[in-house]
Amino acid sequence: MRFTSAFTGLALSAVTQALCPYAEQALRDPELMKRHLKSDNLNKETPKEKRQSGPGNIPFTTFNENQLIDVTGKYAWVAPGPGDIRGPCPGLNALANHGYFPHNGIVPLAVGASATEKVYGLAPNFGIPLTVYATLVDGNVLGDTWSIGGRQPLDLTSPVIGAGDGLSGSHNKYESDASPGRGDYHLYNGDVSSLRVAKFQALYDLQADAEVPNYDLDVLIQHRQYTFDQSISTNPYFYFAPFAGIAVSNAAHTFIPALMSNHSAEYPNGILDKETLKSFFAITEADDGTLSWQPGHERIPDNWYRRPLGVVNEYSPESFAQDFLQIAAVVPEAASVGGNTGTVNSFTGVDLGNITGGAYDTTALLNPTTFVCYFYQLTLAVVPDFLRSEALGSLLGTALTLLQSEISPYVDPSCAKIGNYNDSFTAEFPGAAVGKP
Ligand code: HEM
Ligand SMILES: *[C@@H]1O[C@H](CO)[C@@H](O)[C@H](O)[C@H]1NC(C)=O
Ligand SMILES: *[C@@H]1O[C@H](CO)[C@@H](O)[C@H](O)[C@H]1NC(C)=O
Ligand SMILES: CC(=O)N[C@H]1CO[C@H](CO)[C@@H](O)[C@@H]1O
């Protein structure tokens, strides 16, 4: 089925008006938000009276000096050395360079979620599943570690099959084509970790004439259109997977305004200017405007303030569902599983209902509550598939227990379960062969 027909008759503009569940509740019950902010024991950020709505779907925003991220002392920036691993994720590379992650780029499961919350305001109900997924799909299940880039060196805790391929080796499982800045697997001989400066330049130039440059969600949605079209028109093997594509690739776009913006009393919702964007992406600009990339040099700028903490303000799957809706309204293809069929410009979308045994169809993703269900249920469905393929043997039980125990607490019991994950559709897409279970 072509993606265009999956979207026929949809009133997208109506759905994009919906607010995230927290915002809806909080609007009805202002006490609720106050309680959330009070109960936040990580830090005490005084709520501002004014309600803000703005780019990146930060429904309510407070500003407090303690949003400043320490980049001094033990958190001072240190370039990666020869033995240090860096990979396709600028947010994680920066954490390793600043000592919020181990400098070698090998991250214990628990550190992944706590550091991404502390430094960026990524909600634990987002960060924990992302970290667990990394551990299971491309990490060391026995040692509970995962690599932000290539393979981690083997040690005594490594399972017989190895310690996982790392994020850089997770194409179609975690890492995806049509990234904001990285190149497609088949276009660069499998190098999915290097930033392609021309792609970054396309994003950078979107604010060339702006009076107050700000890489907000609207700008990133324009870039989403560009990156998707770029893959369709240049990569015969372009493939957009149920999890790596719909969830991860779209999140890689929304994370830029949501998690890299600088917050202040003046801009409590955040503003992402050119200097901050370049710093996080390890880009330097010469006097003549030429951009260049320093591999592994991603850096949190001095005087950078993250989004506020607290349930309402942290970036959760619920917040992502809101941003996803706005993407889908402009770039509906990016809400669909599919790919090119061996030639450029042959993008074909697949009926999601067919893949999920009827549990979720493409239109269901446009309901934020259902989208959140899809996010969690899909991890529960695809991880076992990836695991079996890697013949974990006696570790399989350990892995499945970890998956269930870490993800299940976040899943609303009323979510439809994906009882029958059916990946036969991938036969149509030659690019789906990489990383296939
Ligand atoms: C545990 C948490 C995280 C994990 C496991 C993770 C993993 C990944 C992976 C696998 C990719 C490659 C996606 C693709 O190929 O399109 C990626 C890309 C990306 N991530 Fe993360 N990430 C995490 C947190 C973050 C955070 C906190 C930020 C922002 C501060 C961030 C920003 C990005 C961006 C901007 C990209 C796209 C890079 C590019 O294409 O040049 N991520 N991440
Ligand atoms: C963030 O905003 C504050 C307040 O405007 C400013 O002092 C600081 O320099 C900004 N940080 C960055 C990295 O732009
Ligand atoms: C799996 O999907 C294929 C089409 O991609 C379909 O022909 C097949 O009947 C499905 N199998 C099950 C068990 O649903
Ligand atoms: C559950 C579901 O959506 N099944 C569909 C799979 O695809 C075939 C053919 O395209 C349909 O007939 C099924 O209804």
Automatic annotation (TrEMBL):
Residues 39-59 are annotated as: Disordered. Residues 73-326 form the Heme haloperoxidase family profile domain. SUPFAM superfamilies: Cloroperoxidase. It comes from the Eukaryota. Residues 39-52 have a biased composition (Basic and acidic residues). Residues 1-18 form the signal peptide. One of its GO terms (molecular function) is metal ion binding. It holds the Pfam family Peroxidase_2. Its cofactor is heme b. The keyword Translocase does not apply. Keywords: Heme, Iron, Metal-binding, Oxidoreductase, Peroxidase, Signal. Belongs to the chloroperoxidase family. This is Heme haloperoxidase family profile domain-containing protein. The lineage of its organism: Eukaryota, Fungi, Dikarya, Ascomycota, Pezizomycotina.
